[in-house]
Amino acid sequence: MAIKIYLAGPLGFSEVGRMFHYECLIPALEQLGLEPLDPWQLGDTEELRSALALSDLNEQRTQLAEINRSIGRTNVEAIDRCDWILANLDGVDVDSGTAAEIGYGFATGKLIFGYRGDFRLSCDNLGGQVNLQVEYFIRASGGLIASDLESLLQALQSAGQ
User: What Gene3D superfamilies does this protein's entry cite (predicted)?
Assistant: First the structure.
């Protein structure tokens, strides 16, 4: 049975992020025999696309509020089903949704890996790589933070053996 890995991160918000996510990261994970649980695919529904296309902003707000709750619930269910979490930590600061998913995953006993290919500083002080609480949850889960895709894939492969 394949290890299920939840993909936390903001990559779906941008065109270049989606390209890396779908053309590089997911195929590499599948090649390792992992089963990605992708919140960007789980939450991409016709209902969401229809609500975003509404011209009446009050109606759009009402519909999106309900859709947002549904997406949040779906993501929690996916984290509950996964074995591991892979969190993309790129950006000037860790995405707030990603940080929440890391915290929830840690609280439920998941093994968490971080990927930060971004070379900019994003830490509380020189003792860390990212926000100290996020980094604590990742390392205390038994995971690590990789700074390049090759190192990340090696760590995932080693953990799966």
Answer: 3.40.50.450
pTM of the predicted model as reported, rounded to 2 decimal places: 0.93
Is residue 122 within 8 A of residue 130, CB to CB? The reply is yes
Q: Which CATH class is domain 4-159?
A: alpha beta
| Residue whose token pair is 């009402």 | 62
In DSSP terms, 86 is beta-bridged to 7, 113
* DSSP of 109-150: T-EEEEE----S--SSSTT-SS-HHHHHHHHHTT--EESSHH
With tokens 């790589």, the residue in question is: 129
User: What count of other Cβ atoms lies within 10 Å of the Cβ of residue 80?
Assistant: 12
On whether the CB atoms of residues 8 and 76 are closer than 8 A, the answer is no
How far is the C-alpha of 160 from the C-alpha of 145, rounded, in Å?
16
Sheet holding 84-88, edge to edge: 35-37, 4-8, 84-88, 111-115, 145-146
DSSP SS3 for 39: helix
Q: Consecutive sets of 10 residues in the chain, 161 residues long: mean pLDDT of each?
A: 95 94 97 96 88 94 95 96 97 95 98 94 88 97 97 96 82
What does 15-37 look like in DSSP terms, one character per residue? HHHHHHIIIIIHHHHHHTT-EEE
